[in-house]
Specification:
heterodimer, A: 117 residues, alpha/beta, Rossmann fold, 5 helices, 4 strands, 38% helix, B: 280 residues, 9 helices, 9 strands, binds iron/sulfur cluster
Chain lengths: 117, 280
């Protein structure tokens, strides 16, 4: 566990093209982000962005400490890699909305530190 | 599916604009995301600054929206005043601004393609020899690569089953470890067993599929009662689908036996050339 000085940015994936993330969890997490005061980025579907090697993935990956609300860590990590936008494992926390409860996912996003595993 | 990133949206609530209010903000976010847009929201901390995009800045500006320009000259920025507009009206404003710019939209294309976990892949090329649709290729450095992800058959995770290292993921698959869940020892042993089974069956899963599919077709042609025959064929295909995790529509649309053989030979030659080059 590391405590970077920089506040992690937040990226939220809506999984809009297949919806493998439970609707209740992704709605609760988005509502939580929307009600909070922090800036964040949200994308319709990281899989789709990876498929067409969206250049925004490179900008996201290169931008310092990051929390990604999406799905399984292995999937997200290699989706970025296949878009030639490798994530820095040490400074990226992937919050798995497929397995965590809405409350757990929100708490992980709010925590100031990064839990890479 | 080579689509451009389309339009990036920034919900602006900084100086010169009023806060959107939490219900309205949530409504706008969900409706734009569900249409396929990427949306950033300003607040405490940083958000994405797209580099080669069209940026649409939306805010409750008191009067006319400000005129904005990218100092670097790369991003085309347009600001729009959304005062008084609900989520539906904001979505139609955004759709109007996008105009003819192509963009994937939910329901049009499901992003389904293999994603390789290179921490597990041993570059054995079994996936490349197996796939008949030219999804896999080899990089300049001789590494297995997913090169034509558009060719992949939606909902078919068959190649993940031939990978002895459980290195192939389909993030939108329902179950693990194919969906990216951590891989257990039991998963690795199960996958190894599957490859051995396919070797026992002659090493060519496609031949097996084709034979079974052909058998189903010939039963179909001999049947007088076409309804019954159709049900029988469906039963057969359903069994294949449940056996091999291959969707029935993929099986129904397999190419002719000759074409399968030609493609399998091409894929095997490609894999062998890559392995030979790696060993050289
Ligand atoms: S990364 Fe995961 S959550 Fe995001 S679109 Fe892909 S499968 Fe869905
Ligand atoms: S079958 Fe698996 S281990 Fe072999 S090259 Fe393909 S992904 Fe890598």
């Amino acid at each position: 566990m590391s405590s970077p000085a920089e506040t992690p940015r937040i990226l939220y994936c809506r999984c809009a093209y297949a919806q493998v993330v439970p609707q209740e969890t992704k709605d609760a997490v988005l509502r939580h982000l929307s009600e909070g005061g922090a800036a964040f980025d949200s994308v319709a579907d990281l899989c789709e962005m990876s498929a067409r090697r969206d250049p925004r993935l490179k900008t996201i990956a290169a931008g310092g400490p990051l929390k990604i609300a999406a799905c399984h860590r292995r999937a997200v990590q290699w989706l970025f890699h296949s878009a030639e936008a490798p994530l820095n494992g040490e400074s990226v926390d992937i919050v798995n909305m497929r397995t965590l409860s809405p409350a757990e996912a929100c708490a992980r996003l709010d925590a100031p530190d990064i839990s890479p595993t | 599916m080579a689509l451009s990133p389309g339009v990036h949206i920034l919900l602006y609530e900084g100086s010169g604009a009023s806060p959107l209010g939490s219900e309205r903000r949530f409504g706008i976010l969900t409706s734009l995301l569900d249409l396929g847009y990427s949306v950033s929201r300003t607040g405490i901390g940083a958000c994405l600054s797209p580099e080669e995009d069209t940026l649409l800045v939306l805010g409750d500006f008191g009067g006319a929206a400000p005129v904005l320009e990218d100092a670097g000259g790369k991003v085309q920025i347009t600001a729009k005043n959304i005062a008084g507009l609900d989520a539906v009206a904001v979505s139609s404003l955004v759709e109007g601004e996008r105009g003819e710019k192509p963009m994937n939209q939910p329901g049009r294309w499901k992003p389904w393609f293999p994603v390789i976990d290179y921490s597990r892949c041993t570059n054995c090329m079994q996936c490349l020899s197996f796939c008949l649709f030219d999804v896999y290729g080899v990089s300049k450095e001789g590494k297995l690569q997913v090169q034509n992800n558009d060719n992949c058959k939606t909902n078919c995770p068959a190649c993940s089953r031939v990978c002895p290292e459980v290195a192939i993921m389909f993030p939108k698959y329902s179950g693990g470890p194919i969906n990216g869940e951590p891989v257990s020892d039991a998963d690795v042993n199960r996958e190894k067993m599957k490859v051995d089974i396919s070797a026992l069956l002659g090493g060519d899963i496609y031949n097996r599929l084709r034979e079974r599919s052909e058998a189903a077709k010939s039963r179909f042609s001999k049947e007088r009662d076409s309804g019954k025959a159709l049900a029988e064929r469906k039963k057969c295909l359903t069994k294949l689908a449940s056996d091999g995790f291959i969707p029935a529509d993929v099986l129904e649309n397999l190419p002719s036996p000759e074409e399968i053989q030609r493609r399998a030979a091409d894929a095997a030659a490609k894999a062998q050339a890559a392995l030979a080059a790696a060993g050289a």
